[in-house]
User: What shape does this take?
Amino acid sequence: MESFVPHGASVTIKASDLRGILEYVPLYRGQTFVVAIDGSVVACDNFANVITDIAVLRSLGINVAVVHGIGKQLKDVGAEKNIELSDIYGNNPVDDRTLSIAREVSATVLQTIIDAFATKNIRCVSTNAVRATEVGILSGVDYLNAGRIEKIDFKTLENLLSLGMIPVMTPMAVNREGRVFRINSDLLAADVAVGLGATKLIFLTATRGLMVGDEKAVAVPLEDAKSLMESRRELIDPRVFSKVKCAVRALESTKTQRAHILDGGEFACLLTELFEKVGCGTMIYSDEYQKIRKALPEDAPIIYTLSKNSAREQNLVYRSREEIESKIDTYFVYEMDGSIIAFVSLLDISDGAAELASLHVQPFYQGHDVGTRMVDFVVREAGRAGYKKLFALSTKSAPFFAEVCKFTEVSPSSLPKKRFEKYEASGRHSKVFVRELR
Ligand SMILES: CC(C)(COP(=O)(O)OP(=O)(O)OC[C@H]1O[C@@H](n2cnc3c(N)ncnc32)[C@H](O)[C@@H]1OP(=O)(O)O)[C@@H](O)C(=O)NCCC(=O)NCCS
Assistant: This one.
């Protein structure tokens, strides 16, 4: 299978590559991604490929909402007509002339996007779901036609998404009376992501990601992004700074867990970032431990399915759906982008001892420290609950517990009596490990 890259070269995709992508189908299906496309990306040679990437996301059942910018087009028209613009990116006061050019270029950029989706047979809709209000006077400066978001009609956006449409939003919006304002597209994208409960907010821009001086940040925890903004602001390009700020705004909401800043001029940037283990831009993600949570009754079916598969490989002991349902409050899950990628159970086995059981990390995510984090989490939980010992039994992952998680191998007879009897009866001959908690 071939796909095209700019400049006429071609890339061969092996049929086996599809397996990798298929891993993500259940992971992302039904989720919403907000893609913010800078005006410079709409204008670049790679734009048609960006649209192809979005078409792939749609074909995987991912809902996509698009917000576009107009900075480059405004700058170009300003230079062409020799007009000094009062604002380029929707952060400064917007005078009447700048507003009028912004309206014109915005309509052109929107049409370019709509036309490009049409070439992929994808239905998109330009909406007036955003209501603006004036920025007003800040520190004594009248921001004139600069607007801020007053309200977004998320119901309408959700309805469009449920029909398989891509809502496309421009950085122009009107107030109740129909007065037009220029708004900042990064901020609009962040607010749309929060309101739609999008799991990802993706900025496509003209840089390789978040560059701090000459260094590219690849994966940045939310807290680090916040401190970077405070301590190293002068080293960050102002355009990228705006994206980091808006990413932080979205990640502080409950649902959005990842924001990506990618070079929209790079071939297959979206697919590489989302589907390859090593992405191509910067990912800012919300705090690790927020992702490990107590399992809910509705998590039981997926835990059952995953644990059944793992039991087939003789990693885990088979547990029936009923057993998992009845013990669901002993499980913790690791959630990424709205999907469960790992789970573990913390069982009381009496005599002041607990057992770390049923630890499973989905194969695609193994080797990325998820297992270690789950173990650390359970050790903390068990300690907090007052247990003195934490046991773990394993047939195939003994080195993981002994060498990586620093559990000590002990004789099975060290288990509390009842658990030892069950151990003997099982005939699995698992190795037994323990961590002293105090
Ligand atoms: C065992 C398991 C939970 C580890 O999860 P994981 O997310 O892959 O582990 P991590 O990425 O945190 O591993 C960190 C380190 O442990 C090592 N490791 C993981 N599994 C290992 C194993 N079975 N043997 C030896 N080392 C192992 C990794 O190579 C990695 O080493 P590194 O830091 O030198 O690169 C996971 O492989 C799994 O779900 N296996 C199937 C189910 C299972 O066996 N569960 C345990 C029984 S309760």
Notes: The CA atoms of residues 118 and 237 lie 34 Å apart.
